Amino acid sequence: MNKKLLSGLALVSVAATGFWACGEGNINGKDWNDDIAMASNDQDLQTLKDNALNECRITPDCYAKYQGYLEGTEVPTSVDNPVPDVNSSNSNGGGNSYTMPTVSSSIKIARSSSSINIIDDPVESSSGAAPITDDSFGTCAPAKNPINKGTAVQWKFTANSKYPDFDALKIAKATYDWSFAADAVDDGSGKGTMSGNITYPNSGPTTASVTVMYDGTPITVACDPLQVNGAEITGCTCEPDVAIPDVANGPVTVTWSVSKCATVGATITGYEWTGATGTGESATAAFSEKDQEITPTVVVSNDDNTKQSFTCSAVKAIDASKPDYEFTDQGNTNAIPFVGNVDATVVFNLPSGWHGAGDAGTCTFACQVDRGGTGDGKITGSIGTVEIDGGDYVTATIDVANTIGGKSLPFVLNVGSNAGASCFVAW
Question: Quick check: 283 and 335 in contact, CB under 8 A?
């Protein structure tokens, strides 16, 4: 029953021999006027109403007039068995069964000298039914997450355009009723798909929901949770114990550790890892193939309900048995055919006694921009841990003792657009 349609009917007076009597001044042979006249209080009148409605359920003519009243249409003066057969236990004895709508609690009855007055109290809901919970109708999430306690955030509802019977016009006409945790402070500015500015004075996880009145049906959507942080956590670093794992001889396990975390007025209580396995200050991950790269994150928490995420240093595996570039002798030159950037593995695999005076000492690894190139002629990047920032010719010092039998280094160069470079080893 659409109670909003009824809200315009301030007072409907129907003669007892018309609506309630339904025909010859009675319902199923009972004249209700005498009982009405004898009613002495509101409770008696309420009982009369209930009895009359129960009788009316099984009388076609009375049912039709009552239904017409509910729908706001003109009540007919006579009706010829207007109700089709339906499955119901109510029967008028003539073979037809009828289902009477549930009477709203907002319908009241009052006595006058010759009639029953039906008064309808306006009600907000169109159906009186509880809202339908359906998260497939759309999504809802805070505009920022996490936030600090004492600050405000808005929540946003986004309708699902693939929802069955989705209608953009109905969405535009919909109304939105937002619900938040008991401690939330709403400034009341939210009137549509965006909530108002909601302030949270206390820390901890919290949730929200929105009920959308969509084409007369209330649909509730649960929002994604919001993290409200208390005391701030700062200074955390997360570094690996192996910067460049070499998987040439099999898988390598790398361990990341969190340190230097600080929090004022609270105590660190836990660590949650993503991308690596661990429950405390350290977590591990295994590398099994060349170019495998892992960048873990760790959420550090304290006893003031704060959860702060930190990103660890990235680690990328190499494979010395499968180098991108390899240098095996003095003057060994490798042209590097790239445009812009190159990110590769360089292996120095020098023979014993390579520089003619034993296996100790240093050599020079040098790269030069191709003279015929059209780039900007400047090389930047790194060779191992040596940072390069030079002109068209750059060098890095290599420890010869560590290159006998092979040594791998990550190799990152940028020589500008449309340029190439050549690199070689000398002493």
Answer: no
Distance CA 162, CA 136 (A): 9
Token digits of residue 304: 């003031």
Q: Residue 252 has what pLDDT?
A: 97
Q: How far apart are CA 345 and CA 181, in angstroms?
A: 54
Dihedral sign of CA atoms 142, 143, 145, 147 in order: negative
Q: Give dist(CA 191, CA 157) in Å, integer.
A: 12
Q: Is the predicted pLDDT of residue 136 greater than 90, yes or no?
A: yes
Paired tokens of 393 = 């010719």
Q: Are 392 and 377 in contact (CB under 8 A)?
A: yes
Sheet holding 325-327, edge to edge: 325-327, 341-348, 407-414, 380-383, 386-389
Per the structure block, which two tokens stand in for 133?
A: 């919970």
349-362: pLDDT as tens digits: 888 877 776 788 88
Separation CA 322–CA 423 (nearest Å): 19
At position 286, the amino acid (one-letter code) is: A
Are 414 and 341 in contact by the 8 Å Cβ rule? The answer is: yes
Q: Compute the distance between CA of residue 260 and CA of residue 237 in angstroms, rounded to an integer.
A: 6
- Full DSSP string of 369-409: E-TT--S----EEEETTEEEE-SSEEEEEEEGGGTBT-EEE
Q: Token pair 């969405």 is at which residue?
A: 171
pTM for the complete prediction? 0.52
Q: How many CA atoms lie within 13 A of 348 on its CB side?
A: 28
Contact 56, 22 (CB under 8 A): yes
Angle at 384 between CA 383 and CA 387, to 5 degrees: 55
Show Cβ contacts of residue 246 under 8 Å, excluding neighbours closer than 6 positions.
Answer: 252, 317, 318, 319, 320, 408
Q: What DSSP line would sit under 6-40, residue for residue?
A: HTT---EEEEIIIIITTTTTSBTTB-HHHHHHH--
Judge whether 15 and 115 are in contact, CB under 8 Å: yes
Cα–Cα dist 218/379, whole Å:
64
Give me the amino acid identity at 19.
Answer: F
What SS3 class is residue 186? strand
261 contacts 228 by C-beta, under 8 angstroms: no
Whole-angstrom Cα distance, residue 427 to residue 145?
56
